[in-house]
Amino acid sequence: MVTGVTYENGTYQYAMDIRLDGVRIGRYSSDTREVTPMLPWLGRALGSKYLQERTKEFQAHEQRLKEMIGWCMQQDSQRGGIHTGQVHIHCSLSDQAPVAPRFQFAYDGQDLISFDNQTGTWVADVPVASQLKQIWEKESTWTQYVQFFMRDDCLQTLRSLVQLRQWVLLSPVLPEVSVSLRDAPHGPVTLSCRASGFHPRPIHLSWVRDGGDVLAETSSSGILPLADGTYHTQSSLEIGPRPDGPRYACRVEHSSLPAPAL
After folding, report:
1. Quick one: which of 2, 23, 169, 222 is 20 to 30 A from 197 by CA?
2. Per-residue pLDDT tens over the stretch 192-213
3. For residue 214, which phi and psi values (nearest 5 degrees)?
4. Are 165 and 86 contained in the same domain?
């Protein structure tokens, strides 16, 4: 889903969400002007060169949507205020065969025009879009790009992402580990160790005091599945209110690690 918003003061915001099977895997926005992977494994799997190429492409899309909103505002009797343009791009596979691709442009919440992938033509959803249909069909470069994207690029990208996900889930994925402290007034201190984004499922978190003694955790979340096929877990340890006492560390054991890590 691509969203652009033009404000009354002339400022413009743009955001693109990239999803795989309903899971948000990437984002681009006018604030960062770069593609940001939302899953730990995705950036490593795609590589910096691929992300840089997509960033340049999405920067061009940002300008294109701004122009599309500007055209709609010119046709609108109420040009002031806030106006929104959205492009819904969707492609799917069933046993590697493409199913019902979609390229739909909406303005201020109303579907305006869509692309018919079978005929390679634009379909005006409302009368005002008939003029836009004529403009885009004369502008063959834009129509050819959309047709190429829907018939080739979107599907190839989808196949690649599915294969990458399968490859990742067959390979060990390092956990991302963080430790936090919660200090209750006049009460015990609670240490929390979180490990997220790891695969395969088995993992062991334990607490070490002064580099030696292994302590039993106070509570655990168990190992929970995440939407991207990886896992998350949290272990907590309650200790006495002793700021100058022993030092504690979280010990992580997982098949992706060559040795237990602190």
Report:
1. 2
2. 999 998 888 899 999 998 877 7
3. -95, 125
4. yes
Number of independent structural domains in the chain = 2
Residue 101: CATH number of its domain: 3.30.500.10
CATH number at residue 231: 2.60.40.10
Among 117, 135, 170, the domain-final residue is 170
Q: Using pLDDT thresholds of 50, 70 and 90, give the confidence band for residue 224.
A: very high
Q: Closest by alpha carbon to 98, among 150, 163, 22, 165?
A: 150
- Spatial distance between the Cα atoms of 38 and 47, rounded to a whole number of angstroms: 14
The H or E element containing residue 75 is helix 48-75
156 and 219, same domain (yes or no): no
- 8 Å CB contact between 25 and 42: yes
pTM of the complete model: 0.66
